[in-house]
Design goal:
This protein is of the alpha/beta class. The protein has three domains: about 70 residues; about 80 residues, Alpha-Beta Plaits (2-Layer Sandwich), CATH 3.30.70; about 230 residues, Rossmann fold (3-Layer(aba) Sandwich). About 30% of the residues lie in helices and about 20% in strands. A seven-stranded parallel sheet has the order 9-10-8-11-13-14-15, sandwiched between helices. Strands 1, 2, 3, 4 and 5 form a five-stranded antiparallel sheet that branches. A hairpin with a 6-residue loop joins β3 and β4. α1 crosses α2 and α1 packs parallel to α3. It is globular, with a radius of gyration of 20 Å. The chain starts with a helix and ends in a 24-residue tail after the last helix.
């Protein structure tokens, strides 16, 4: 019983920290947080099957994180009709006819503007919602008014890993592989010590250094990627990581010729983002995304669950699937995602854990190969180590990629 409560306390801290980092707040301090976090890591390594938490515990942690973020930023973040967090006050119409736009206007919605996502074949109309309606009520009302039109909210996405605890090391050298294909990340920005080849912000205050974005860049650098392009979708915006920001980031990276994009973020299914990802894929872009850390009982994570996206989970130092790993509608690969040493936004050596950090390792290996997505998958399948059940399975996908990539 004590073990269970220790796990809940430690992983609650891990779950809340990324959200606090997203909104620029200091880390949440639970009693003896650093001690609990360190102990939980040791416990996970030693206790094996005894450490598996219940689905109810994981979902409770997920809900606490989201409820706190919404409570701390009233008027900026609301729940949509599905109960997911989204940017308040605005809805999107995709492929709307003039008559449908007029109907929305007559119903009290205001037309903020018509917008096209640069680099992608995605057009939308931005609507302000009536002052007397909540986001949920407005979404439902617009859906009833325009049943044949795609209505989308601006749902939020969260980092799928924790920046971790500083460790007394000078960092890790490169894995010595040279990857020249451009790799983009959609995340927070890295610290000033990092030198991405290109960087652009898609949120208020962006680019703004973040520990999570720094860790992803650090791992791409370790994996030998020479051309790293960063799209910061968080900045200092409490509602950062929204679908619109990610869609615009996809457009920019696609337009600049980026061939592989790593997205270590998770959120709910979103019509706008699904359309943007499909458009990027038509341009030959390979998208690699995390399954998240909300546990196997959580809803499928997106963008990992979108069609054609390479969904990635993570393993620990003994090649065991992380107990907190989420799920996607499909699972492609696993990669190391625990006790990895990276640089945070301050340039300090940090130990990280989460499915977030498996993504850049798989993205680097995908970028090391040439060809269409089917050819790249064939190469990844050939180098992947088959773990668990023989052949593809729901725990490791088609195998462990970059198993020795452990900085």
């Amino acid at each position: 019983m004590r073990l269970r409560y220790l796990l809940i306390a430690g992983l609650l801290a891990i779950a809340i920290r990324p959200a606090m980092a997203q909104v620029g707040l200091p880390p949440v301090r639970l009693p003896a947080l650093d001690s609990i976090t360190e102990t939980i890591g040791n416990t996970l390594d030693d206790a094996g099957a005894e450490t598996v938490r219940t689905a109810r515990d994981m979902l409770r942690i997920r809900e606490i994180r989201r409820a706190k973020l919404m409570r701390d930023h009233p008027g900026q973040i609301e729940r949509d009709a599905n109960g997911d967090l989204a940017r308040a006050g605005e809805l999107f119409l995709l492929d709307a006819a003039p008559a449908e736009i007029d109907a929305a206007r007559q119903a009290g919605f205001t037309v903020i503007g018509h917008e096209q996502i640069e680099g992608l074949a995605v057009d939308l109309v931005r609507l302000g919602i009536p002052e007397n309606l909540s986001l949920k009520e407005a979404e439902m009302a617009l859906g009833r008014l325009l049943p044949d039109t795609t209505v989308s909210v601006d749902t939020l996405h969260f980092p799928a890993g924790d920046a971790g605890k500083r460790v007394p090391t000078t960092g890790s050298s490169s894995s010595a592989r040279s990857v020249r294909t451009p790799v983009g990340i959609i995340d927070g920005a890295p610290g000033r010590h990092a030198r991405p080849s290109a960087m652009r912000g898609f949120a208020r205050g962006a680019p703004q250094p973040s520990h999570h974005g720094s860790a992803i860049v650090s791992l791409l650098d370790y994996a030998g990627v020479q051309d790293i392009r960063v799209a910061d979708v968080y900045g200092t915006d409490p509602a950062g990581g929204n679908a619109m920001a990610i869609a615009k980031a996809l457009g920019w990276l696609t337009q600049t010729g980026t061939k592989v994009i790593a997205i270590s973020l998770v959120g709910p299914r979103n019509a706008l983002l699904e359309r943007a990802i499909a458009s990027a894929q038509k341009h030959g872009v390979i998208i690699v995304a995390a399954v998240g850390n909300d546990g196997p009982a959580a809803p499928p994570a997106y963008p990992a669950s979108y069609r054609g996206v390479l969904a990635v989970t993570a393993v620990d130092g003994r090649n065991r699937a992380l107990i907190e790993a989420g799920k996607a509608d499909h699972l492609d690969y696993a990669a190391p995602g625990a006790d990895l040493r990276v640089r945070n936004a301050d340039g300090k050596a940090t130990r990280v854990r989460g499915t977030s950090f498996a993504v850049p390792l798989v993205a680097a290996r995908a970028a090391a190969h040439r060809g269409e997505i089917s050819q790249i998958i064939t190469h990844l399948d050939e180098e992947a180590d088959d773990l668990g059940e023989r052949g593809p399975d729901r725990v490791y996908g088609r195998g462990l990629v970059c198993g020795r990539c452990r900085p």
